[in-house]
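In this supplementary section we document a worked example of the pipeline. Step one takes a protein sequence of length 120 as its only input; no multiple sequence alignment statistics are reported here. Step two produces a three-dimensional model, which step three serialises into structure tokens for compact storage. The input and output of this example are shown verbatim.
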Amino acid sequence: QVQLVESGGGLVQAGGSLRLSCEASGSIFRIINMAWYRQAPGKQRELVASINAGGALNYADSVRGRFTIPRDNAKNMVSLQMSSLKPEDTAVYFCNARIYDTPYSWDEHWGQGTQVTVSS
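The serialised model returned by step three reads:
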């Protein structure tokens, strides 16, 4: 069984910075990619940033240049470094990972979500 445990989040003023972390644990054979999504009240969940096993990065246009997604392969951990935060970044942030738990099958996993609130 694979688990994703998130940490970080909280309340920050506009223009500030915040760092989220997510650690994958359990039966992990190989990680395909890890990502951060967010969901604001009344809106659909959207991809914020992702990084695959080869290190290829993808960012939402709304966060490019402000957020980065560093990854620690040795610890099966990914972070989301957020800077120049805006009130519109307020949302619940979810860690996501696609993981082979055996050499032959993979599954998609989600963290429990962590609240980020940016005050104006």
